[in-house]
Amino acid sequence: MNFRPFRFTVSLALLAGLPLAVAAPLAPAYAQQAAEAAPTPSLSAKDDWLYAGTDIPRDAGWQFGTLPNGLRYAVRNNGSPPGQVSIRVRIDAGSLMERDSERGFAHFLEHLSFRGSRLLGDGDTKRIWQRLGAAFGSDTNASTTPTSTVYKLDLPSATAAGLDEGMKTLAAMIEAPNLDAKTIDSERGVVLSELRENAGPQARVSDAIHEHVFAGQLLADRVPIGTEQSLGAATPAGLAAFHQRWYRPDTAVVAIAGDGDPAVFARLIAKYFGDWKATGARPTPPDFGDPQTGLPIAKVISEPTQPNIVTLNYLRPWRPVTDSVAYTQTLYHDFIALRIVNRRLEQRARAGGSYVLAQVGEDSVSRSAMVTSVNILPAPATDWAAALKDVRGVIADALANPPSQAEIDREYDEMDVVMTREVENAQNQPGTELVDDLLNSVDIGETVSDPGHHRVMFRSSRPLATPQHMLAVIQKLFSGDVVRAFVSQTTPPEPGTEARLAKLVTEPVAADGSARSVARTVTVADLPALGRAGRIVERSTIPVLNLQTLKLANGISALVFDNDVEPDKIRVRVRFGGGRRAMSPTEPNLLWTGDSALVQSGIGKLDLRDLESLMTGRLLGMGFDVTDGAFEFSAETNSADFADQLRLIAAKLDHPGWDDAPVKRTRVVELTSFDSSTGSPSAVLDRFLASELHPGDLRFASPDRAQVDRLTPKAFRRFWAPKLAAGPVEVMIFGDLSKVDQDKLLAETFGALKPRSAPLAGDGTPLSFPKPDPVPTVLRHSGDANQAAAMIAWKTSGGLDDIREARQLDVLAEIFNDRLFDRLRAAQGASYSPSVGSNWPRDFSGGGYIMAASLVRPQDVDAFYGYARDIARELMATPVSADELNRTITPLKEMIYRASSSNAFFMNELEGASSDPRNLAALRSYVTDTESATPAVIQKLARKYLANDGWSMVVLPKDVALSSVWTAPTQPMLVAGDAESARPTAVQALPEGR
């Protein structure tokens, strides 16, 4: 086993003054115990069932076997994250296997399996996972697709006893879930809530596309969620019949990857799945059908709250393949061809005109069709027909003329960098990805190989990718006996619109070669020159982490963490200015434009296209983010490109470019979003929640349509130029620095910048938070009448000085979340997605909050507030039990330990540490702060922060009055009442909100 990934976890444990919490690999003694308890299964190369008939190079990490009852399995050792074991069980049963009366049953069974089994009562499964350190919903989950159901369990710090308990529980819930009427009726509400919460304008568009594109095939009306009618009619006998038919060992595959002995994993599979018996013969899946000719080509619908979209689809029959090197090479050629076409479409969009975005993709859809799809977002106020014509023109040129060798080489160079990165970082590939990749391959009848073999096959495909060959590949991608086009528009379609669409997608169109990539050679030498190299004037070292803080003569600081956890990978983050904290809350801003336009505006005289040429075939990049405490440029690079990566970002700060095109495009893209910003409760929250939580603070407000419409390149430059030039700079360099001289390169790049002026400071106003009010603020959505959202938030605090309290509030919020889940979802079925979280801003001294929120039906709004306030009163009145606290803290600690095996964790936690040592102190105390949340502490925090009405907000349909769904509370929060206290029934006359 490779122990290098332990390095960070050991460091964090030392910082916390704690013994190492990550479990050692499963001991040989346990393997012997497992062997005595179960028959010894096959683990020989003779049983490589995944590789039957293929010449694909085998991934030697996997070992395969088949139990006597027909269950297949694959196991491997994997030390990332350290101590974790990832388990997946795939059942070859999805929505396509359902009969008409069973629509949604595969997904319903997935839900029911987590409720209980022959071994456990309702809800006990979740509590077992929590005691083992697995967070419900992230470490334990499942997914249902048209072709399969996959159960997922990630056990952190998997001890021998914990793994045994986890496997026993998982096997029981899959083989024999509780299917009694009471459990089914309770979970029925949850599934119906999920159906309701996922519905709405966006879902209607998606469903309409699906039904039209796959018309005539089983896939057209087999959405995994099912229908209200079929779910409402589901009975214990019906669900049991589906389970008996499809849940059987010969339809199951178990995959395990984790920090332990594969032989132990195999013996556990045999121990807990070996006695699983099937009834009758294995069922034959229904005929999914081929794409149907002779059906309408075009479909047009109207969704007023959704932006205009156009999709064009070319369908070919799906057929099973024998995976091979030659077949894999064809997949690589398809991928390169799509990248060439997409780059041209992107260039055409950047130039402005009829469409904002257009992208081509190919997919093998649910073993039903091979589909090449073209998705188009027309520019606002543009006829979708013009956008479709322009996109088809770019594609027509690709179909008529071979791509240049330079275009092909560019895409191969780009992808070779990505694949090399995967090879170099293979030891850190998480077990979750390994098991998921393997089961995805099982689903489509293909194989897996390791990153090194993938790169060899990719490179072997390159000599075959001549211009003429790639022309044939593009022509194949856009061929098909079935063509389906779809338009969603904001206005009702006029008569003849579908006939017009059908004509537009079938008639010849003139080839448009204007977007063809022109060979442009740009190097780092073309970047604007920096000043004379500076020097390092201060240095300090933190020995435990081998962390250095440096100060350059011009005042710029650096934080350097040299480690080899990610071989030859270096993360760079440059934090400058003061972010939101240094801005006035009352002055209008253009913060919302930074992510989409600042990097794209170029450097000096080099535009985005020049920068892309410079980066081709190299591990260079530049992302941008606005945070509370700073603006940030970030990138991931390697030792070969590290020097140029530093120079690239330094040049951006010193000589920013101001290309107009990205700003104009940002304006157009933002304008398209307004059509969908009120289409559902979730859309309303995405756009307006932050501004409601911080009333009057323009730093958190989304722009309105008029503000977006006024955006100009001149205004963009006027806002951002001072931000790039002012304020402190912290350069964070975390990764494998064994092959670079970071001191010299820092001095030559960031040390060469002019001394920075003081940042533009705000007025020092703390973050605002709405006053407690028992009457909810009301926002409106224009979507479905059966959808609403409700939330309640209590003000807390913020800042680094009270970071222990922040971690303790995380524990309080998780306990609150678990109780709300049990009542609102598990017991009442009123919501699929209740959640509670604590937000504690580190860069402000206040403005934090605990918030409970959920999507609900309007008639369940009152129940949500009743449960939330009941739980708050309970937490104030009675200390939590030791078991409940342990079930909360254990998964939180495991999350910390797993996260601490990556550079990203340390980089996030140590932001600002070069100037503020409190960040390092906060890192040192992360675990102990979390563990300090005793029952008495939790009760004290509840009484401190939850003893008021809180601030609440509800998002209602436009025609639903608040007074019809909400009852004014009569019991003040300061009084700790009984959890089962009677709810008030009087309805008061209430003012209506927006």
TrEMBL record:
Q: Where's the Peptidase M16 C-terminal domain?
A: 235-410, 711-890
**Span of the secretion signal?**
1-23
Keyword check for Signal: yes
What keywords is this UniProt entry annotated with?
Answer: Hydrolase, Metalloprotease, Protease, Signal
According to the UniProt entry, its GO molecular function terms are: metal ion binding; metalloendopeptidase activity
Question: Tell me, which GO biological process terms does this entry list?
Answer: proteolysis
- Report the domain of life of the source organism: Bacteria
Boundaries of every Peptidase M16 N-terminal domain copy: 81-219
Tell me where the transmembrane regions lie: none
Q: Which family does it belong to?
A: Belongs to the peptidase M16 family.
Q: What protein name is recorded for this chain?
A: Insulinase family protein
